[in-house]
């Protein structure tokens, strides 16, 4: 009985994560592919140059907090988007830390 309820709850969870229509599915795919492309560009080159606004905003703590909120929102919407955005955040933070230490 307990296993059956676990399986049923897992099936309900997976159903809730499925796209809710063709537009939602298309947006999930588009955002995932866009973030994958961003990750490929940023992850392939060590110390890649970021837009100047990203560099200027990095020392402001609320900016990094907004990245975390966007990560949570993306993961809540679609797990694939959350994973890709986690990589975006990781590469951005790690590149900025290395770059900021290098420029001091």
Characterization of the model:
The chain has 104 residues and is mainly alpha-helical. The protein has one domain (19-103). Helices cover 84% and strands 0% of the residues. It has helices at residues 2-17, 22-44, 52-57, 61-77, 79-103.
Quickly count the helices: 5
- How is the main sheet built? none
Query: Which consecutive residue ranges, at least 5 long each, have pLDDT under 50?
Result: none
In which range does the helix fraction lie?
Answer: over 70%
Distance between the ends: 62 Å
Provide the residue-averaged pLDDT. 80
- The value of Rg in angstroms is 18 Å
**Whole-number tally of structural domains:** 1
Secondary-structure element sequence?
Answer: HHHHH
User: How many extended strands?
Assistant: 0
Spatial shape: elongated
Q: Based on helices, strands and strand pairing, what is the structural class?
A: mainly alpha
Q: Regarding quaternary structure, how should these chains be classified?
A: single chain
Q: Determine the strand fraction and express it as a percent band.
A: under 5%
Summarize the structure.
The chain is built from five helices and no strands. With 104 residues, it is an all-alpha fold.
Secondary structure blueprint with pairings:
Elements: H1 2-17, H2 22-44, H3 52-57, H4 61-77, H5 79-103
Helix pairs in contact: 2-5, 4-5
Features:
104 residues, mainly alpha, 5 helices, 84% helix, elongated
């Amino acid at each position: 009985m307990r296993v059956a309820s676990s399986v049923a709850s897992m099936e309900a969870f997976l159903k809730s994560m499925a796209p809710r229509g063709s537009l939602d599915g298309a947006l999930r795919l588009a955002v995932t592919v866009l973030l994958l492309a961003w990750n490929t560009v940023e992850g392939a080159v060590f110390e890649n140059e970021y837009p100047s606004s990203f560099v200027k905003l990095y020392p402001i703590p609320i900016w990094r907090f907004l990245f975390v909120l966007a990560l949570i929102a993306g993961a809540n919407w679609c797990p694939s988007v959350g994973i890709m955005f986690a990589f975006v955040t990781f590469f951005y933070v790690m590149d900025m830390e290395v770059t900021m230490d290098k420029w001091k």
